[in-house]
Structures are given as C-alpha cells and as structure tokens.
Design goal:
The chain contains 13 helices and eight strands. It is globular, with a radius of gyration of 19 Å. Helix 1 (17-27) crosses helix 2 and helix 1 (17-27) crosses helix 12. Strands 1, 2, 3, 4, 5, 6, 7 and 8 form an eight-stranded mixed beta sheet that branches. The protein has a single domain (4-81, 113-329), classed as 3-Layer(aba) Sandwich (Cytosolic phospholipase A2 catalytic domain). The protein is of the alpha/beta class and 330 residues long. The protein has helices at 17-27, 43-74, 89-98, 104-107, 115-122, 125-131, 158-164, 193-197, 221-251, 260-267, 277-280, 292-313, 325-329, and strands at 4-10, 33-41, 135-142, 148-152, 174-176, 179-183, 203-207, 269-273.
Length: 330
C-alpha cells in the first residue's frame, strides 16, 4: 500500500475505551499508515497520549506496548476505576443513581484519583512535550463557561489529561491556571475541527464508542436516563459534524469564492469506525468495569473492528471519503 498519513479522533467512554485500544493496536500493524494529529476526549485522551508516548519511546512497537501497559494497569488489582468494593450489577446501578445526589466534595474529601499515580508512572510529560511524534488535542470542558478547551502537545501535563477525564459526580474539578475543568465529553466528544484546520493530513478517522443510532426506543426509567446521558455526551459531536456538512453543502457550488477554511473542510476525507454490537449492547454501568476479562474482551472486539474496517475501507485512505456525511448528519 502507498504510505498515507492520517488524523485520528478518539471518543471517550470510560472502560469502553479499551475497544479503541484494540482498534489502534490493529492500525499500528500497518506500516503504511502514520499519524499526523490525534484528538482525544476522556478515555480517548488516554489512548491518544499512550499512543504518542509509546511511539516516542519505541515507534510502532513501543506504541502497542504502551497502550497494553496502560490498560492492563487499569485492570490490575491495585488500580480500580470501578465504584467502591467492586460494586456490580443492580448495586452498581443503585450507586450510580445515588451519585446524582452525592457530591465528590462530600465523599472524596482527599480528592483521591488513582489515575494520577498510574499516569505519572507511565508518561514522561516533559519528554513528551519536547519530542511528541504527532500533534495532540486533548479536550476538556471549562466549568464556568461550558467552553471546549483543547490542550496541545506543547503544553500537555498531568492536570490536562486528568481534566479531560474528570467526571464531576466522581472527582472534584481539575484546576489549571485558575480555571476549573470537567470531562471533555461535555463540549467535544471528540473534537474534529483541530484536525481539519491545524493538521496537514486530509484523512480523518473517527473512532466512535457510542452508536450513531440507538434502537429500540427506551421506555423504562433506567433506559431513558441512560439515553439522556448518552445524548449529553454526543450532542456536541453531532452538531460539529452537522456544521461540517453544512459548510460543504453551502460552499460546494462556489469553489472560486471559497476561503481557506472552506477549502480545508471540503478537502477533508472523513472516515468513521463505529462501535460494534458488543458495545451497543452494554449498559452505562459497564463503563466502570475494569476487570481484565472485560477490558481484554473489548480490546479483541476493537481489533476485529479495525480489521474489518481496513478490509472494507483501508484502500480509500489518501484517495476518497469512506462515509456519507450527508446521510449520517444532515
């Protein structure tokens, strides 16, 4: 295959991010594919940084090893992103419901976040800032304004990465330079526009953890609440993609009048790798499941999805778009 450089947009989704680990693990085996920029939110931000840090230390094989190291550490007995006492099933759902009324400022007085030690042990942020192999765009949401903030590879440090994955019902807001931040999923999940305007590569592969369409209609209180939460984390992405399609539709007949921004949007070749039926069938509580069996199962599912996508659409990279944005987002 002819070498091609692409951009990646990685969606967040808690433990479901292990699916993206599998997708990236498969993509890294294709020596003809390289990366120009990576945009990541929450779990997508973790995957983006592990991809970059591993590549910095050892190229493709280093990236594969770093991603595995991170997710296996998440699954280890001394680290848990689950709820207290490894709560499961109905008890987990009850705890998630209770967290709507209990604040981390009441329960987590010491602001303990096990991700801190894990990330400090695996990422040399100073070296990554100096020698990042590609552009990074890590999304967080400013609490006071609701604005999307993107932290790039030149400024990236531990608080920026923690901010991108800061769920306000579990962790206290992350303070950076006097401003407070929550999970980037509230404002961009993932953010696509920096890959269009700030990267040279025209191909953008978006790896989704939430299905673009959910069936059947949710009717129980639990399923309605779950869908409302999903929509909250997906609406900004849907709106951004709708804007992209509108720019294309309104400017396509006036190419001679297009400015730089319109030309960049029209020149983008978009590709979507959607979540598979396994992810679609999981409930919200599974995003807190850090068991090794669950995470490695998602990783294998992600590898299979990556293999299927490469077989179906890999030849289109560098040539043409592989999805119909109008049909999906207009």
């Amino acid at each position: 295959m002819k070498p091609v450089s692409i951009n990646l947009a990685l969606q967040g989704g808690g433990a479901h991010g292990a699916f993206t680990w599998g997708v990236l693990d498969r993509l890294l085996e294709e020596s003809w594919i390289s990366f120009d920029g990576v945009s990541g939110t929450s779990a997508g931000a973790m995957n983006a940084v592990m991809l970059a840090e591993g590549w910095r230390k050892g190229g493709r094989s280093g990236a594969k090893a770093q991603l595995a190291l991170f997710w296996l550490a998440v699954a280890s007995s001394d680290f848990s992103i689950r709820l207290p006492e490894q709560l499961e099933g109905a008890v987990t759902r009850f705890w998630l419901h209770a967290m709507r009324y209990l604040s981390p400022y009441d329960l987590n007085l010491l602001d303990i976040n096990p991700l801190e030690d894990l990330l400090l042990g695996q990422v040399n942020f100073e070296q990554l800032r100096q020698n990042c192999p590609f552009k990074l765009f890590i999304a967080a949401t400013e609490v006071a304004t609701g604005k999307l903030t993107l932290f790039n590879e030149a400024e990236l440090d531990l608080p920026h990465l923690l901010a991108s994955a800061c769920l306000p019902n579990i962790h206290k807001a992350i303070e950076i330079d006097g401003a407070f931040y929550w999970d980037g999923g509230f404002s961009g999940n993932p953010a696509v526009f920096p890959l269009i305007y700030e990267c040279a590569a025209d191909d953008v592969l978006i790896v989704l953890l939430q299905s673009l369409q959910r069936d059947p209609l949710p009717v129980s209180a639990e399923h309605i609440a779950a869908r409302v939460t999903e929509l909250g984390f997906q609406s900004t992405f849907m709106r951004e993609m709708r804007t992209i399609t509108n720019i294309r539709n309104y400017s396509s007949g006036w190419r001679w009048r297009q400015g730089w921004a319109e030309r960049k949007v029209n020149g983008m070749r978009c590709h979507l790798l959607e979540s598979d039926p396994l992810l679609a069938g999981l409930d919200g509580a599974s995003k807190y499941d850090n068991s090794k069996q669950f995470l490695t199962g998602l990783m294998e599912s992600g590898r299979e999805a990556g293999e299927h996508w490469l077989s179906a659409h890999g030849a289109q990279l560098g040539k043409r778009e592989s999805c119909d944005l109008n049909a999906l987002f207009s």
